[in-house]
Structures are given as C-alpha cells and as structure tokens.
C-alpha cells in the first residue's frame, strides 16, 4: 500500500520492501528510480550506474528473484517486493555465492564495473531454471545452453572481457 | 630461467576480483566526502559560435554554491600543445566546449541551475572536414597555437622515410593505390568519466580522486593548468571502470572540478552522464590514409608510400601523435624495402581524438593488411603465402631501427593459417568461385592479418621507467608499492604472482599498493602495453636487492655462509646445506637485532630502449610483440549482415605469465576489434554527435561472440620478466583488417572503409553485379 505524505519539497511516497533479506522503508519522490534509492538512501554502492537508460545492465538487481534494470524501475513500484542487490548475493558470513565464485575463478572480472549487474543477471537465470525445475518437475539435468546464456546476457554490456569467460563461468555453474 | 616455475604460467584468478565481485570496490562514482558538492558543466549547443553568457538567474537558485566561467579563472591552457582553454571565452569551436561550471548542494540543483544559465550564440558556419580546413580561405580554428606550420589549421605533422623509393618502385611488378577511411570509435568505458576534488584553502593542497591512467603525468599537467606546484597535488586513483587509453590525457572537466573546489573550499564531484561520456570523451583518431604500395614479381614487398590526413578536431590530444605508432606498422610490419610516410593532423570544428588501445595501429593495420590482399591478387599469389614470404624474422633490424631480438611473426602466421585451413577445409568454405555472391544467400570467407606493436614499453618520454618499493613485514606478509596502475587489466595480479614466485610467499599474504602519488614511486603510466613488462622487471629488481639482505641475515642466523637460497612456503632454505629458517623470523631479526634494518628494497627499472631521433629512427621498445589472426565470416547477401564465425589468433606473448588473464585480454581485444570492424561509429553531422547512447552506438553483446581459438607463441625474450612481452593492445589491432579481408574474400568486393555495416556491404554487392 502506497501511503502519500506531503512534504515541503513535493509529494513523497512511503515505500516498504525487503532489501537483501531485511525489511526496509523510506520516502521517495514519485520520479525516483530504484537505482538511486539503493545507492543514495541505503548506501549500497555495489549496484552501478552505467547509462541510466536501461541499455547497459550495470544496474541490474533482482526483484522477486528476476533481473530488472534498477535505473528504469520506479522506486514506488518496489513497494512490497523483494529486492536483492550484489551485496545481498554475498552470504552473511562473507563467503561468495556460486555465481560470484564462478566469475572470480573463471577470470570473468576485469575492471568490474559491469560485474555486479552481470552477476545479478546470471543469478536471475539460475533462479529461472531452479524455479522451472520446481514447478514443472523437470530434471535438474536441464540446464541453459550456451546460446541461451548468450541471449540472456545480451542486456549486460561489458567492454573488457569479450564475454567469453563470463559465459564459461555460467556454463560451469549450471553444470555443477 | 631454468628452474621450474611454481605459479608463473598457471591460471590464477585475479588478485583483486573479490572486491569487484561483491560490490565492495569503490569506484569514483561511489565516493562521498563530508560536505561534498556536486559539479556540472554547461557545454555549448553549437559547435562553432561566438557567445555571451549570463549566469545571474542561475546564481539565485538556493543550493547553488558557485558558478564559474572563463572570466572567473586564472589558468593555463591544457593538452600537450597547450592549445585547449579549460573554460572557453567568447567563442566555441566544438560541441564538447565547456562554457560554465556549477557546484551545488545536490545533483538536481546543479542540473536545474545549468538550465538557467542564459547563453546567446552567434552561430558560425563551422568547418567539419580536414580538407575544407586546409583551404586557403578557411578561417583559423584554433587561436592558441604558435603557427609553426605553413597552414594555419595544421596541428601536427610527421615525416618518416627509409630506403630508396624510386628504386623500389622500379623493382615492382605491381603497384596498388587506395584511400582508406577510418571512423570515430569511442572507448565507451562502462564506468563514465569522474573526478572528486578536495582543496584545502588553509594549506593550499589539492587532493584528487581521479581515474587517470597516468597519475604522475597528470599531476604535472594539472599543476601547469592550475598554476600550482605538482607536489601540492595528491592523486588517489579509486577503482577504475575501464581505461583502454581514454584516461591517458587530462581533459577540461578535471581542472574544472579542481577549480570549483578551490573556489568553494569544499570537495566537489563531477560524474559524466552516459550521454556526456559519448559527447565529451575523446575518441579513436579518425583518419584518411592514402596508401600506395608495391610488390615484385616474386611477391616481395618493395615500397609503401603513405599520406595520412587526420581530423584533429578543435583542440589537440594524443590522437594527433598516433603516427608514432602508425609509422611503425608501415615501416616495419613485414619486410619492406622503402617507406615514405607523411601524416598531418588538421584542426576542424569536430570533436578531438585521444589515445585508444592500439594507438593508431588498428587504423594502419587495416590499410596495410587490406593492401597486402590487393597486392597478392594483383600478382596472382596466395594470400597466406605472400604473408609468410615477407614475415618479420628474429634478429632483424627494420628500416626504422626496431630491433627484433625475438620475433614470433612467422610462427604466428603459420599457426593461424594451418589451424584455419584445417577447420575450413572440413566445412568446405575455403574455395569460392568469382560469381558466388549471386548464387546463394550465405557466403563465407577467410581473411588474414598480422600486427606489430611495442612489447616492452615505448620510450616516448625521457624515461619509460617504473619504480617499486618492496617490503616484507615481521609476520611474513609482503607489500609491493609500485608506480604502475591497475585499470582492470590485472597488473596487481601479475605483480603479486611474481612476488609469490620469487619469495615463496602465499598470494594471500601479498598486498599491492598502487593508487597514491604521495606514496608510490614514479612511473609513466598504463599505456603501450607496458605494465607487466616494465613494472614486472622493476619488481624483479627490487626482489633481487631484498633477497640479498634476507640471505645475509639468514646466513647469520643459520651460521652458514651459503650463496644460494630457495624461497618456498614462507621459508628460506639454503640450497647447499639444506638448512632452513622461517622468512618472518628472518625479517624480525633484521628489524630487532643489530644492525637493525628494514626488510625493504627499492628499485627503478629503465628499459634498454632508445628515444628515437628526429627522423623517428631508433629502437623505441624493450621488445616487440607480434600477432596474426585468421578470421572466418559469414555474410548474409540479402541483408548485408556480417557474422564473425571463427577467430584463430596466435600472439607472440614472449612467455605466458597468467593464461587466465591473458585469455581475457585476447577475448576482450578481439571483441573491441570486431566492434571497430562492424558496428561502432560515433556519427557526426555538422559537428554534432548523432548517436550519443548505447541504443544507437552499437557495441557488441554476448550474442555476437565467435569461436575464438587462441594459440600463445612463447619466444622467451630475455628482456622481459620470465621472457614475457606486453600483450594488452595487440589482440584488437589486426581484427578489423582480418574481418575486412574475410568479407572481401567472401564477396569479391573491395572494402576501404570501416565499419563494415550491412548498408555498405549491400551497396558493394550491388555494385559488383
């Protein structure tokens, strides 16, 4: 439920959502995008501003387990949702998620500016397969093909790696 | 190096990957300082105009702390030619021109205030082509140059020659002439340009968080611009979101940010939007290359005559100096009897170009390798054979004085030719009849190209050196303080691997400190594929000195007088007696017992290369890298779309230091080269950029990657660390040339221009029918 509160600098909306497993709330302008809320209100700087127009994917976060461009996503629409950022992907004891681990081990990280978004997109793909295994009862052996992985990552630009190592990393995780 | 290596040569994940993959890496975009203001720059709306400016309305906005125009500052011009004012006064000459800057309490206020600055323009026609600018009646575009050239709009010229051109022309059985046109490509780093400046009015010191690739040159340039003492400026490099050469020069937004901080006494941050990044960061140097070349009847290259005209834009950056590298490709890639080279950079009202991975070499290699195919066709020789016949060789000293102590050119060529033939013979795509393009929709072709690049730095300044200070602490941890920089390429990892290899210290116990000009020793910067070579040798030098100290103490503690020690698993072991002692214990004893010294060593490595003479002759690099690529493409003759199927790449890397990171450089370079070949062009019309966004500037995506087979060629150069050469730029350099040759091979067309868009392919096909 969106609660409207009048403030001197215009109308603000109170939103509540789950951010990296914790319930949070804040007040946002109707025009605020999720990226800015994550970075500036909650000071989670791991999510990166790459283009602010939904082209590069550096700002990708998960909403209820599926990847979105947080630079285009209005923060008010996050109300009641579950948002996961790169900080939430790392386990609470500091150990790496399988996606992060695979990116490191396969040499898929260079400058790293695209990496947060890339990791969240990959996690989204893993979630999709995980869910489809659960809901359809399909065998776990059904894993994304190399072409599917490429297609899935089309929305995440990387200027350093040439994508090969990133795709290798995703294949490795799917097989494990 | 006879002993078996423990970690060098093994796939080793990036030392600093963990902070990057957890979102903990602090890029310039993530910095927030107490009391920080947000800066924004007002740029001109017209590429050529006179203007007056009124900031009174913008000043009244609550939260606007400072607005500066050219009238408010006392600065020197920037760029190596000092032809670029930081803020423009009265007239603008390119669409990037900065005319005012604001510092405000929030980003939103800064943006709002920008819109309230009133600028009245008196629009001028502008000159948007270099040939137009060279006409006698053209107005002078840049008013800040001394005018040492015969034409007022010439920014820079280069002339080089070797051999007897006329003699070589006489020997030629075929002579071919072409004009090649190369586009503006932009770096499109994923992290946009950024800077945070913090000036302390009390002590007059300036702290900059800057993503420069060349902190010490930058410090000097900044000091000159701001009329300060360089040592009063401290540069800290946050994690850098991509470089590729874009951060090799200092641009106006950087001193502007410093000025805003100096005026307000508060920290100020400027971060480019993506649109601003496309418009206001420098590009790869566009150019027109007129190339005439000859070949004798046996297939030996006889001469090359080159005339290059470069669109310099309104101001000068490193793009103007790319002929340093371009002439090397023409003078010294494959053996050639004579070379006559001229290049001219011409001011226009377009945007200026900077340095970009390859530094002019992709442009040169495109023209040269296309020409080799044309020459082969002219004398009816096989395109692989003509290349092998003319390939460079070990021990060769070229007409320009480049000395190839090691040279993998032939082996690179043989490798990619053999591997590509194996594959394509199987799939029967190698032979094409001359009418094939009209017969079926999809046609395949194969193209070859090689490249030569500096592999051991480039002595274009008085020094091409790098300093290292190495320290081992009382707990056996090692800190490498290096002058070199990490821009994502993996220099920290390679240095940590070298220290681990030599000192027997676990990688996890090695730290690399490389981001602070107040701490680190001098270095030229990240460019010319030099870091592993130069910083690696520098580190090895420091290790040698430190080991002498450690060995001495170890002998004392072990009561031996041995000369050879092995460093393994945190222990120092005498090779003769077999006695060993823990490294940390030795360090503690160095610190705490007579004569009480630190386990620290410093070393400055200067490559054996030479500064070239006025004729641009001399052995400019410590060693040279070679690479060849064979590329198979498939062309859709209905749509004109070119799809790269296979890339076989062999590169003379000297010695593989870390195959994982090496692969990353190869793949990334090839994809950038593919973008240059096929899709990337910053489109300009009358000085304005038409596609300043990722939607219309087409970078390749994961879907576009071909099969890449990489064959590292190890020539073990004795100058390099463990025999290694520089690798970073090479993979991008021959890619566009090989793709163009492959498309021409598939369709029997003559490509003389990049990028090879579907539109151009279709036009060429229809012209042929």
List keywords for this structure.
heterodimer, A: 176 residues, alpha+beta, Ubiquitin-like (UB roll), DNA polymerase, domain 1, 2 domains, 6-stranded mixed beta sheet, 6 helices, globular, disordered N terminus, B: 769 residues, Aldehyde Oxidoreductase, domain 4, Aldehyde Oxidoreductase, domain 3, 3 domains, 7-stranded mixed beta sheet, 5-stranded mixed beta sheet, 19 helices, 28 strands
Provide a compact summary of the structure.
The complex is a heterodimer of chains A (176) and B (769). With 176 residues, chain A is an alpha+beta fold. Chain A contains 6 helices and 6 strands, in the order βββαβββααααα.
Structure description:
The complex is a heterodimer of chains A (176) and B (769). Chain A is of the alpha+beta class and 176 residues long. Chain A has helices spanning 34-41, 86-89, 98-105, 115-136, 146-152, 164-175, and strands spanning 3-7, 10-19, 22-28, 60-63, 66-69, 82-84. Chain A folds into two domains: 3-88, Beta-grasp domain (Ubiquitin-like (UB roll), Roll), CATH 3.10.20; 98-175, [2Fe-2S]-binding domain (DNA polymerase, domain 1, Orthogonal Bundle). Chain A is built from six helices and six strands. The termini of chain A are far apart. Chain B has three domains: 17-24 and 465-605, 2-Layer Sandwich (Aldehyde Oxidoreductase, domain 4), CATH 3.30.365; 31-124 and 192-240 and 247-280, Aldehyde Oxidoreductase, domain 3, CATH 3.90.1170.50; 287-458 and 613-768, Aldehyde Oxidoreductase, domain 4 (2-Layer Sandwich), CATH 3.30.365. In chain B, the strands form seven sheets. Chain B has a seven-stranded mixed sheet with strand order 3-5-1-12-9-10-11, with helices on both faces. A five-stranded mixed sheet of chain B has the order 7-15-14-13-8, sandwiched between helices. In chain B, strands 16-24-25-28 form a four-stranded mixed sheet, with helices on both faces. The N and C termini of chain B lie far apart (60 Å). Mean pLDDT of chain B is 96; it is low at 429-435. Classes of the chains: A alpha+beta (176), B alpha+beta (769). At the A-B interface, helix 2, helix 3, helix 4, helix 5 and helix 6 of A face helix 1 and helix 17 of B.
